[in-house]
Target: Sulfotransferase family protein
Amino acid sequence: MASVLYLGGLGRSGTTLLERTLGELPGVVALGEVVHLWQRDVRDNERCGCGTPFADCDFWARVGAEAFDGWAGVDVARVLRLRAAVERTRHIPALARRRLGARRQADVLAYGAYYASVYRAAAAVTGARVVVDSSKHSALAHCLRWMRPGAIDLRVVHMVRDPRGVAHSWTRRVARPEAAGEEMTRYSPARSALLWSAHNAALGLLARRGVPLTLLRYEDFLADPAAAVGRIADFAGLPLRDGDLDFLEPDAVRVGVGHSAAGNPMRFALGRVALRGDEAWRTALPAGQRRLVTALSAPLLRRYGYPLRPAPVARQARHRADAPPAPRPAGDATGTGRGAAAAVRAGR
Model:
């Protein structure tokens, strides 16, 4: 059985870039944000990462045929009803328990079965040993953990980014090239800070329930992409050989055509993609908003190795060695217990 590498975290934390990077590894098939497959692709026929409409993409046609005897066999309305019933952040306290009620369990298993079918089919038609789903949603990861043994070999990469950088990114206008005239969702800094805390705390609960989980900071990925990718490949059970990382440079990744089902516009990128941090938040995010985001996310900030008071831009290079140490990469490093539950309740 192929392992499923689930990339979790709040949006604008680098998961699409990581997904595209991992998709270049031999033995890996990257699917994009499968959580949006049903509505945006199966129903609305938006563009695949390869640039063609979903219905015209040969890769997804083969996956659909293998999984459901064709996408026409998927009751999208039912999938979305199940999602509304079980896959919301407010459901995580129930999903994180050691037992589910009979009705909830039936809905969770029915919902998760659609994902398991897609994962198995993608592995079957490509021969991949690792399937990457960059859906990000913490609630979906909690649903998938309930799948019965043998259904999904779930492993979670919990990706975090400095919440002030995340907050600044959410304020930007970003067009959705696959949907003419539409833009990606925008959040206020306060809203993004609450979501950052909620989703990251919720992902931390997975480790306490026995789900294999490794933590990756976006900033560490950019600083040494080869080391980060090598560690994740090992976590996924994928042995690497000499030359497997030749598509990586110290400051760039070379990507080919991908088939990401959904995600940010970076999924359409081809060729050399620069790996550089976006530090614009240090000057572009107003000081009051930076302080607000820091206050709202403080309980988890230092846990992930981020300073409460970042060094001023002019001093940052000189004082980089003074930054708090990065957290350990594996295990329950994301905050649990009553603090996590409170953060979850602050989410959607």
Q: What stands out?
A: Strands lie at 3-8, 28-30, 130-136, 153-160, 213-217, 248-249, 252-255, 271-274. The longest strand covers residues 153-160. Residues 315-348 have pLDDT under 50 and may be disordered. DSSP finds 15 helices and eight strands in the chain.
